[in-house]
Records
---
Amino acid sequence: MQTIDKFNFSGQKAFVRVDFNVPLDENFNITDDTRIRAALPTLKKILNDGGSIILGSHLGRPKGPTAKYSLKHILPHVSKLLGVDVQFADDCIGTQAKEKSAALQPGQALMLENLRFYAEEEGKPRGLAEDAPEEEVKAAKKAVKESQKEFTKTLASYATVYVNDAFGTAHRAHASTALIAEYFDVDHKLFGYLMQNEIDAVEKVMKNTTRPFTAIMGGSKVSSKIEIIENLLTKVDNLIITGGMTYTFTKALGGKIGKSICEDDKLDLALSLLAKAKENNVNMVLAVDAKIADDFSNDANTQFVAVDKIPDEWEGLDIGPKTEKLFAEVINKSKTILWNGPTGVFEFENFTHGSRSVGEAIVEATQNGAFSLVGGGDSVACVNKFGIADKMSYVSTGGGALLEFIEGKELPGIKAIRGY
Ligand code: AMP
């Protein structure tokens, strides 16, 4: 397999799929440019080698060409960060894109307009009525799949090498994230640095694991984490279940949870996960106490109680001090740590303590030689909020993509390049 370190981009035109789907305010100012910065090592390597770049990305969820979702808004900032004046093609498959990509010289870069202005990028039909007859839906799906081939081929025609550095969309089999790879031979398709680092971090945790391996799964609902938990139960030594999920488990075990968040239709599932943990010799760690509130608000009255003795009308919004200590002891003995999801409603300042203590325990374990991977949305927000992101071994940029990767699924964006 070709790798970015080995590849010399001199004289090459690289189609680089990036994830520049950044948040913008109402004046189209970028409010968080992390995703652009994350792609810079790859882009700079290509330019420094003497190659040129054709940047492809999506922004938002447009249903067709929409000024609001134009990538033109971010062009000045990308130029500034990259240190070159990035050109722009106002249509990703139009004449401008073809002519400007053909005229690109070494050291130059061109950004294509939002790929998702075309339904062909995702390969899903648009504009169908909700009650459209099945035949019509079938025909529309077939038509878009057909035109997707031409779309993909056109994108591929601009370049001599394909680079995928968009980990955030690696779980999608879209034209620019996966299908395009078919048009390049095995020596001319490769992962960018960001993508490679993400893959290496997940594989270090899930495949080449140094034990003990502890996963900390938080968040609100068991139902959204079932597949991950099931896969982790075949891999980890310790599984800490925390956040809102705690109360479904506590209720299933016969505890009183007051009006804490709970999925009543998942009580049997919680018990079967506990049984599976036992069968697999996995130490499943649940909270023993909770910080409870008499209202779902930052200013609610609070008290600490045993997790299975929550009075009616009260709800658990974070873990208590005994649980913090229990979790920290497990984390401190670990050599591999995966953290996904807060221990409580960390958006409320008064319920951040548990998540902060887990974060600090992971920092300490990392300083003592453990490998720590944090990812999947809210735990990334946590480590950023607590200012400890740079003390983790790796903080993933992927939300859904990371979760599917941990579930053990094949990601189309990865498979298209390395074959698995
Ligand atoms: P998820 O998106 O599934 O990772 O869940 C993250 C969300 O879970 C955050 O918005 C938290 O506020 C929420 N959460 C964590 N603990 C609780 C809890 N005890 N009660 C209600 N929501 C919670």
---
Amino acid sequence: MSRNIVITGGAGFIGSHVVRLFVEKYPEYRIINLDALTYAGNLANLSDVEDKPNYRFVKADICDLEAVRSLLREERVDGIIHLAAESHVDRSIRDPFLFARTNVLGTLTLLQAAREYWEPEGWEGKRFYHISTDEVYGALALTHPERPSGPYGDVFFTEETRYSPHSPYSAAKASSDHFVRAFHDTYGMPTVISNCSNNYGPYQFPEKLIPLFIHNIRDRRPLPVYGKGENVRDWLYVEDHARAIDLIFHEGKAGETYNIGGHNEWKNIDLVKQLIRTTDVLLGRPEGADMDLITYVEDRKGHDLRYAIDASKIERELGWRPSLQFEEGLERTVRWYLEHQDWLDDVTSGAYVKYYENAYGKY
Ligand code: NAD
Ligand code: TYD
């Protein structure tokens, strides 16, 4: 079956992996990447697929109802995979309005445009897939803080866990999830949502922990560890997330939610030490030589202590499993950043940035 799919946020970290997977795996589909190219969007992430005949890039803001409306009609779109968002917690603490605008109003704009286009001819064959985060569930306790890496306890986020977001980022994502469910429950739109744990891998903007620290280790700059480094995150290789998105888009049940996670919990400080060891070896430095770069800094405001996903529903119902062991994924990731120093330098110097304007100014 041929499909015309809009992927929003396709020039970002996870979106670029999803676009690549769909363009290469489904030559019979038309893949339209709708992205505003904010500081986080970079077309260099997709240079290997930009000339494929089944791929088109459209620069547009998801908050622009007219632009979204006309694109859906022009391309006769029957599927939307929605990843566009403001995604960094520290930025959300500085500018919560921007996060409400993009993540809440942007999602609502897409839902409204899709409804206007799809509802009159019926919902059959349509799909609105919203990519969300485990951060909407709030934070878990550290039940076994003495253990160096997971599992820290037997309490995990399930699809039934009550929403309890703490940061402006997770509050905005939670709100967008509620709007997606509301469109399913009110209008019967065939929606599906997935909530994933922390991703790592190539093309992640170096403001997030892993690429930022690889960059700093390379240049022998301090590694700012928030608080005591005791917070726990559950890390998943980005290509495993993209495979889960492919499965859920095609086989997930309308109206359902799927949690995605790697069963791979790491306390930040243990992860940072592992990252230093791996990077040192790949740089030809003595293993552990850069441990002195670890610098404890003031904690993030409202810093969630622990995230951990129970992924048994997607494993049981759709047969998904993470494919990579963390040590292997981390080494592959470090190797990629070290082999793509131009990408890293371009992104950190801002050379790639295409400024865009929104209601709250220039970014
Ligand atoms: P990212 O910040 O790397 O990329 C976001 C993309 O969205 C960029 O290309 C940006 O240009 C685009 N964008 C932002 N505002 C836009 C707008 N108004 N209109 C159109 N495009 C816009 O983000 P990411 O880490 O790839 O995350 C993608 C999605 O996955 C987000 O919805 C995020 O909440 C979710 N998620 C991320 C993680 C993670 O660990 N990174 C984990 C779970 C879920
Ligand atoms: P991050 O990559 O920002 O993802 P998230 O906040 O969405 O989990 O951060 C991962 C963890 O690393 C989080 O507990 C915050 C911490 N952290 C630091 O200690 N120092 C840093 O410079 C950054 C960016 C994050």
